[in-house]
Amino acid sequence: MTTTKPRAAKAKRSTKASKVKGLEIDVQSADITKIDTPALVVNLFRGVKKPAGATGAVDKALGGLITQLIEDGEIKGSAGETTLIHTLGKIKPSRVLVAGLGPQDKFDAQVVRQVSAEIVRFLRRKGISSAATTAHGAGIGGLDPQLSGQAIAEGAHLGLYKFGVYLTKSGESTNEFEKLTVVELDKDRAKSIEVGVKLGCTIAQASITARNMVNEPANHMTPSRMAEAAQKVATNQGLRIEIMDNAQIKKMGMGAFMGVAQGTDEPAKLIVLRYDGDPSNPENNLGLIGKGITFDTGGISLKPPGGMEAMKGDMAGGASVIAAMEIIGQTKPKINVLAVIAATENMPGASAQRPGDVVRAMNGKTIEVINTDAEGRLVLADALCYARKQGITRLVDVATLTGAMVTTLGKACTGMMGNDDTLVQQTIDAGKKTGEKFWELPMFDEYKDLIKSDVADMKNSGGRQAGSISAALLLAEFVDGAAWVHLDIAGTSTSDKVSGYLVKGASGVPVRTLAQLASDLADAGAAKKSKSKAKAK
Ligand code: BES
Ligand code: MN
Ligand code: ZN
């Protein structure tokens, strides 16, 4: 029989600190075989016959039990594999969980995120509420200890995530996993891990902000509530914020945005957040533009009823931009970031716009509204114009823009298009660090014919051919020479299954990449500057 020691009294935390729901992660400098924990998590690469490092130390203390299980073929070390061993008093931890890391040549921070999520969910299923773990990959894996800590925190928090706001009977009866301790013998390395864990918690918390907003039903997550959520981020992180209403949107000449907003009684909001990370260099900037359609019925070009409930997530782009600002406000990169979210419903109200209507965007260009369901590009057109007017020279827009993108790329990666190879590559590279994948589609001139209109400068639907590309080509008409990348997250903003750190529902994509990009651009800017300084000398 194994006995589990009573848990230490829960530390009192402010509601703010406990916002990464329920789970606390800390770092301890200690010998893992002597840790008092209901479960000690160690790991194994695939194909390893004789474990070394921390896993080896535990194996030795258990009289070669792990080696035996490997020999018997019960432990293979494949990614996400979990084997629970009761230690029967042989070592201080009452259980050991051996987690597979997969093949060593495919190992990276993303594997740590995925495996960490599987581990904590496994423990939760078993009714185990706390555990200690080695910093996966920080030893033999060759991963930077800080990165390991960050990936563990991100994976654990995101993997445990549940959206249970409206489940009246949940809570008490279900198991919760509450405390994870990362253990590392070396004090300096433990310090690095701790820095990573802190950053990972910040990033996970913001991703959860986005997930919550997307999962909220549209009768709750209205444009006004989106503005409130942005206001909360601004207040907590010390960002400037401006929230503009229908009258102001109209006054600025945002006819494309207003065309969509006129079909609903729900007040529209143009939400603008500002982070001034390099105030003396206004040209060092990045604009994050988000589609915030809190519900997309299609408007007069009404969508068919099957699956329409998913359109509560049509504000995922806007949510991800707000959440990215939550991270940026805390990590403080040396760059100015402007976030613009165009939030409204797309409803077929009595004063809704009609197919055939012509609207005029803020930059004066006219658009024939062929299909009122192609509303995302309309609201983004004006949001892009606004960012350009504010002097932004590098733009990234994020939108659940086209069903065609789900058909093209499915849910494995986000489709991207753009007019600037450098910014495209920088976004892809940021994604390689965060584990979020992007794939570029072409914007050849030949496609431009698709959105030619007889009565206006362009039309908002290009028909069935190359649907995602024709949508991007319309957006390109509003970036006015700025470097620009468009991220179509129609497929990736939600997950239809539990897998690694993704759970059913909102994914939080691409929150982490947007924040990473801001940080990378800031670093690239600083590097360029110091280089030109050196040249001048
Ligand atoms: N919000 C939808 C796109 C979408 C579809 C997102 C499925 C997530 C999942 C967008 O506003 C839309 O309706 N696009 C139309 C455009 C068409 C009318 C040109 C589409 O993709 O069908
Ligand atoms: Mn639509
Ligand atoms: Zn839409």
In short:
The protein has 537 residues and is an alpha/beta fold. The protein contains 14 helices and 19 strands.
Polypeptide structure, described:
- The chain is of the alpha/beta class.
- The chain has 2 domains: 18-163 and 176-185, Leucine Aminopeptidase, subunit E, domain 1; 216-527, Zn peptidases (Aminopeptidase), CATH 3.40.630.
- 36% of the residues lie in helices and 19% in strands.
- It contains 14 helices and 19 strands.
- It has helices spanning 53-61, 65-71, 109-125, 145-160, 187-215, 223-237, 246-251, 255-261, 316-331, 376-389, 403-409, 421-434, 467-476, 511-536, and strands at residues 24-28, 40-45, 82-86, 95-102, 130-134, 179-183, 240-244, 269-276, 285-296, 336-346, 358-360, 366-368, 394-399, 414-418, 438-440, 458-459, 483-488, 494-495, 505-506.
- β9, α9 and β10 form a beta-alpha-beta unit.
- Mean pLDDT is 95; it is low at 1-19.
- Residues 296, 314, 371, 373-376, 400-404, 406, 461, 467, 490 line the site of ligand BES.
